[in-house]
Amino acid sequence: MQVEFELLMPKTLSEALTMLAPAAERGLADSSTPVMPIAGGTNVIPDLRDGRLRPAVLMDVSALDVLRGIRRENDLPGGLPGGLPGGRHGGGFIIIGGGTTIATLLTDPLIAQHAAALRQAAAVFANPLVRNRATVAGNLADASPAADTAPPLLVLDAEVELTSRSGTRWAPVEAFMVGVRKTVRRPAELITAIRFPVPPANSASAFHKVGLRKADAISVLSVAVLVECDADGLCHKARIALGSVAPTPIRARAAEDRLQGQVLTPALIEAAARLAAEAARPIDDLRGSAVYRQRVVGVVTRRLLTAVVDQARKVSSQFFGESPTPEEQSHATQSHHTQS
Amino acid sequence: MKSERFRVLGTVTRRKDGIGKITGREQYVTDISLPRMLHGRILSSPYAHARIKSIDVSAAEALGAVCITWDDIPKVRYNERIVTVPWALHQDHYVLADKVRRMGEAVAAVAAETEALAEQAVRAIKVEYELLPVITDPVTAMQPGAPAIYDEVLLGDEPVKIERNIACTREIEEGDVDKAFAEADVIIERTYKTPKIYHSQMETKSVVCRPEPDGGITVWPTTQSIHNVRILLGRIFGIPLSKVNVKRVPIGGTFGSSIQMNPPIPIGVALALKARRPVKLTLTREEDMHDHTRYPTQIHLKLAAKRDGTLLGAEMELLADIGAHNIQAYSFLGVTIGWLVSLYRIPNVRYRGTAVYTNKAPSCAMQGFGNPQVTFAVETLMDELAETLGMDPLASKIKNYVGMGDTFWGQGPMVRSVVQSDGVQELLHQGAAWIGWQDRPKSGSQTGRYRRGIGLARGFHTSSAGAPQPGDVIDFSGALVKVNQDGSVDVVTALMDHGGGTLEAVAKLVAEALDMPLEKVDIAPAETMSTVYDVVTHATRGVYAGGGAAVKVAGQIRQEIIDTAARFLNVMPEALTIEYDPEVDQGVVFSRSIPDRRMTIGEIATRCWTNSWKTIAAVDSYRPVNCPPAYVTTFVEVEVDTWTGQVRTLRAALGSDCGTVINPDMAAGQLEGGLSKGMGFALYENNDWDVAGQLLSKGYLVDGKTPAIMEMPKPEDIGVYFAHTCEPSGPFGAKGIGEAATNPVAGAFANAIHNAIGVRFYELPITPEKILAAVRRKTDAVREKGESQAGGEPEKGLVGTGGELQ
Q1: Whether the predicted interface score ipTM is above 0.95
Q2: For position B555, what pLDDT does the model report?
Q3: Domain annotation covers residue A86
Q4: Is residue B189 one of the residues assigned to a domain?
Q5: Which structural domain, as residue segments, surrounds residue B216?
Q6: Looking at chain A from residue 213 to 272, which residues have their Cβ under 8 Å from any Cβ of chain B?
Q7: CA distance B228 to B331
Q8: How many domains in chain A?
Q9: Contact A156/A125 with Cβ under 8 angstroms?
Q10: Which site among B45, B103, B642, B644 would you substitute to test the A interface, given the most A Cβ atoms closer than 10 Å to its Cβ?
C-alpha cells in the first residue's frame, strides 16, 4: 500500500525539538497528530506501507549533521547523570550521535577498537543499502525484539540520550525498550545520542546472529557477550544479552552472575550458556519455533563466551601482566597450567 | 560443446543488451512515459474469500479519478494462459473479480493524473464485502461440504461444475502395474511435500496501454508472450487483432511468472479505454507477492525394482494446491507424470493427479513447471532405493535412465519423442571425478559438530513442447530475417528474453548461418503487428524452437543470397558457396573454380538496392517435432552444523548437456543461477499463509528468504562443465538449458544432507530447525539403544547440546 504523509524537514536541532513539542506548546489544537521522527526510514516506511503505522506527520532528522558521528569523551560536560563514575579505568565514554548510520559503525576506528560486538552486529545488519541509511538510534527506537544493535549495546552498558525542549535525560538501553515496539521515549523527545563507557582493555565482546540466510535476514535469535577477565581467567565482569527470544532484547542476568568473580572454565561457560538458554522466553513465529530458539541460543552463547574469554585472557597477559623475564614466563605458563 | 565447425557459436561474446542494462539505459515498462498518461492503481481485496455486495466509487470520482468496477468490464471469462488449446482450457477468470477468492484480488481500479492521486482515489472507494469461510489447506478443501470457491467454470465453451473444489484430475496408466509390483524384489514408497514459494523476479508486473484513434490499443506489458497477450486482449475487449499491437519490452526476469497474461494488463487496458488516455499500472512488490507462486505439491511415490536395481514400475499420486485460479492445472498434472517417466525407464506406471482450489495466491509455472517438485521426489527416492539395494546411486542411475533411442515424454502424455543425443553418462562421470564422489563419507558415519556430505541428483528439461502430433500444447515459432542495404542483418522475432540471453543466442545462430560477423546481425524491436507468431518463451524452448525458427529462415536467406549472386556473377547458383572471409569480416559468395568472380554479402545487398531490385528477406514459421531432453547433473557438497542445524554449501559440480553451447559464459550463468534458485527451494524459501488466507511473510522479500550471493559457494568451488553432444534436431546441434539447471538441485541437497548426517528429509525446505530436530531424534534413539545395550556410546558432540541444554 502506498501512503501519504506530511514531511517536516528541520534545519537545526532546536527547530526539530520545537516541531516535536506538544501541540499546546506550539499553539496548536490538542487534536493535532503527533510528529514521528524519521532518519533512514528503513523501518518506518515499510511499516507505513504495511499499514502497521499511520502517522500523518513525519520529521526527517537525517539532515541534522550535529547528530552524526562517533567520538570519545573523557569528561562529560555537565557531569554524569545517574551517579555513574566517569568511566571505569578512566576510559571515558564513546558517544554515538543519534543520526549515525549503521555503515559508520563499520568504518569507525573507535568502534573497531572498543566495541567488537557492535561492529559485528553492524556487519550482518540487513544489507549495504539499508546500512547506509539506517541509524543506531532508529534501530533502538523501533524496539523490535530482533533489533541487531540492541544486544551489543546491552552488553556495553549503553544509555540512550533523550532530548526535548525541556531538557535531556539518559535511559539505559535495557530500560529504554519496554515491550515489542514500545519504548520510554516521550512524543516530545528525540534520541540525540547513545553512549557507553569505554570497556577496559582486558575485555572482549562478540556478537552472533542466526538468520535464515546470510544477508537481509531478520534474526531468528542473536547473542552478544562481553567478558572482562585477567590473565588467569578470573572474571571481573560478564554481560550476556539475547535478541529475538523475548518481547525485548534481554540481559541473561543469572548467566552473568554465574560467571562474575569466578575463574572461567569450560564447565562454567557451559553452565552459564544453559542459564542463558533458560532466560530466553521465545515464541513460535514464521522465522523459527520457540524450541529451536531456546536450544540454539545456548549453543551460540557458549560459542561466543569461549571465544571472548580466550581473547580477553590473551590481552590481559599482554598488557596487564608484569613484563616477565624468560624464567618468570615459563613459571607463569606453569602456574597457568596448574590452574586450568 | 564448441567445435571446430563453428565460427561464432561456442565463443564468449559480449551480449548486445549488456551495456544498456548495466548503465541503466535499458527501458523497462515502468520507464515508459507517454504524453497525457494517467497512473493506475488497483483496489485489492483485504480478504481471502468474500462476496462483493456493493462498490461505491463516487468519492474516488469526485477526486477526478476514472474508476472501473465489475460493471465496466467485459463479461468474458478467460484463462490467462493460452498455451493449451482452447477446448482443453479451464476458464475461471474475469478482468475484475466477480467474487473475491484470494487476498489481493483486484476488485476495482482507478486512473488519475498522478500516482499519489490514484492512491488517494483507490482508498476513497467503498466496498461492502460479505465474508465467506476461507480454505487454505487443499486436503480440507476436498472434504465434502467444504465451502465452494467456485460453483462452475468453463471448460472450452462448456460450463463444468466444480465439486469439492477440485479443479481437475488426470489419471494415466501404462503397462501392467499390479504385475510389476507383484514381481518386484523391492518396493519403496514415500510422501514428499514441496512449498509454495514466490518467484522473486526482479521486476514486478507492469503495463502501459495507449488507446488509439482507430479504436485499437497499443500495449507495453511485462510478458513472456506478446502474441498471446494480443490474442487474449482482442478476445476480451472485442477488438480485431489487427488493431491490437503489443510491444516487446525488456523484462527484469520472470522465472515463469509472466507466461500467463498478467492481471494488471487487462485492467490497465480497461482503464485506458474508459479514460481514453494512456494509463500506466505497476504492481507494488507487496501486490506482486500476492499474485503468483510455484505450485506446492504433495507427492506420494512408490517404486518397484528388481534386486539388481532395474526399475519395474511406479505409482505416483500428486496433489497440487493451485490457489484461487486455474492457470494451467490440467497441463501441470500432465507434465508431472512426464517428468517421472522421462527420468527413468519405467515400463509400468500408474498416475493420479489432483488439482485443488484454495483461497491463496494462484500457483503457476516457475522454472521447471513441476519438474523441480517431481525430480526432488524421484531423485531422493532413487537414492534411498540404491541404498536399500546396496548399490552406488550413480550406477543405479546409469542402469535406468532414459537415454539414447528411448521414448521420452517431453511435456505430458501427448508430447513424445525419441532421444537422439545423450550426454548423461559423460556428465555423471565427469561430475563424480570433480567432486570426489567415490571418496564421499559413508552416510551417518560421522561424529562431531560439523559433518560434510556429497549428494547427487540428475534431471532434465524438455527443449520446447514440440512433438510429431499437434497434441493439446501449442508450440511453434517463427522469424523474419532481412538483409539490409549494407549487408547487415535484421532478425525480427516475437521471442522474449527473460535475461538469460535468448535473443543474443538467436543473433549468434543467424550470424553462424549466414557467415556474417555477430556485430552485423541485430535483433529488431518487436511488436505483434510486425512479427509472426511465437507461442511464448517458456519450456526451455527459446534457443531450440525460437532459434530453430531463425536458423530455418536464415537457410532460406542463404539460398536467396546465392541465387541473387548467381545473376550478378553470371555463375550457376549450384557452383556458388558462401564462406566467412576474415579480411573483409563478412560472408563472401564465390565459386572455387573461378576465384575472381566473388562478391561480399554487403556488395550483393547494395547492388540489389542500387539496381532497384529487391530486399533479400524471408519469413517462415517453424514447428519443432521433437522436444529433446536437456540433461543436467548436480553434485553438491554441504557442511551441516549439528548444533544449529545450519547448512553451508561448500562445492557444486554442475553439468549440462545442452548440445552445442552457444555462449559458454552465459550457459554457465544459467547453471549457477539454477543452483541458487534450487538452493532456495531446497533449504530456505517458504511462503506461509495463515488460516484467514493472509500472507504471513510480512517481511516480504526479507522473509521470502530467496538465497543471495552470500549463500553461494565461492566461484572456484563451482565446477561447470558441458557434455560433448550434438542434437540432430536442434539449431546447429543446440538444445535448451534454462529450467533444466534448477530441476535436480533440491534432490542433490537432500541427498547430500543425508550423506552428512544419515537422515532423509521428505519435506522442503530443509530448514535448520528440521535438521536440528532430526539430529536430536537420532541422538536420542542412539542413546536409548546405547543404554539398553549397556556400553554403546552416544554420539559425541551432540551430548552437550542435545541432552543438556534445555
Answers
A1: no
A2: 98
A3: yes
A4: no
A5: 32-132+202-253+258-289
A6: 213-218, 270
A7: 17
A8: 3
A9: no
A10: B644
